[in-house]
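Hi R.,

Quick one: here's the RNA methyltransferase sequence you asked about.
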Amino acid sequence: MALPKETANHKQKTILTKGQTIPLNIKRLGINGEGVGFFKRTVVFVPGALPGEEIIAQIEKVYPNRAEAVVKRIKKKSRDRVVPPCPLYDECGGCQLQHLSYEGQLKEKQDVVRQAFERYTKIKPEKLPLRPTVGMQNPWEYRNKSQLQVAKEKEKVIAGLYGINSHRIIDLDQCIVQHPETVRVTNAVKRILEDLNIPVYHEKTRKGIIRTIVVRTGFETGETQLVLVTTQEKIPRKELLIAEIQKRIPEIKSIVQNVNDKKTSIIFGEKTIPLEGPETIGENLGSLSFELSARAFFQLNPQQTVKLYDEAKKAAKLTGKEKVVDAYCGTGTIGLWLAPDAAEIRGMDVIEESILNAKENAKRHEFTNTHYETGKAEVILPKWLKEGWKPDVIVVDPPRTGCDQAFLNTVGKIKPKRMVYVSCNPSTLAKDVHMLISHGFVLENLTPVDMFPQTAHVEVVCTLVQKNEG
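And here's the predicted structure, written out as tokens:
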């Protein structure tokens, strides 16, 4: 848990005790969406509290340099506090900010980015080129994929998420951030499993067959894929199960089984078996089309993905003459978005399957200016440089842990004119920017993009330029 800057350099012992009630003024939101206040210079994190509120908090946990608490009473409410529309909001934990107005969410997500740069860089707050958060017109029903754990409760098959701080599955018969089709299909599959008495997985005994119901729907194509994650390849009454799914949910294009027999929280196993229909469904992003297999990564909010990639394209400032590197390229989505305006796109990724997909995607869209290789960016970039190929722009979209230090050092040596960094973690972004500044880059722009409304997550498109290079 990242601590606010106020406490980053003060490791004083807390004077708080479990069960103690204290008055607290909430100053800001933390990176996980909790309210942050200070009691005698000790930082206190309070889920559900909002900036500007005055509360009475009860201490739940005490650590050497922080405490966690719950709201006992709100003395002064935030003007942005609203009633969460979801009846399961307090139990589910899938969303963290439904009690905050959407305008308030966009404002606080911008502040989360500001906090990260205050803490991890030496950029003066007034010099931080931070823009307003890019939001959604309708911040509901935006998720194109659901992955819900299956269980049995009093002979009823349920599917949902683990409740807050518990190992109890909360049955999600409705979810207002999911595409309605994913909810409808999941509910129909639950009833089919129940009617056919197909054994579902029990986490403690590790007995049963059906572990997870995964449903993905193409927003633009309307195509839907159902994946049943099972503990073994054999499913009792498999043919009848497939027939009932086809009969009751005929619009499903693809039915797939994935086998995961390990004791793990990871959803998918290594083996995937087509049961009915094609192995993939189609989805479009702008002018690009993609074939999505059961395990393929694809952005969960396609509507905002278009805005995110458009921000990256604006940041790259391409004229048609630039050589562009798409580092950590995955299946090549960002690079292909930029390809019409670039002289050449070169991408790399350590996952060979992703590189094969990137090549297929480029070929399907008839791009002739792309080149992909499997391997680490910090190895491949110097190789290309030795061959006489130097990028003008580097685009990177790393995992939450940020960029590899060796990669950042390599970028520092290559010195492209521009670097576009798409981040899903403001803290690791700020740390990496601090390092890039030491390599001669200047921070030009930070644009937060709200990819997951009602949650604490925020993406950022960050632009850096070499000194004296516009």
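The radius of gyration is 24 Å.

Cheers,
M.
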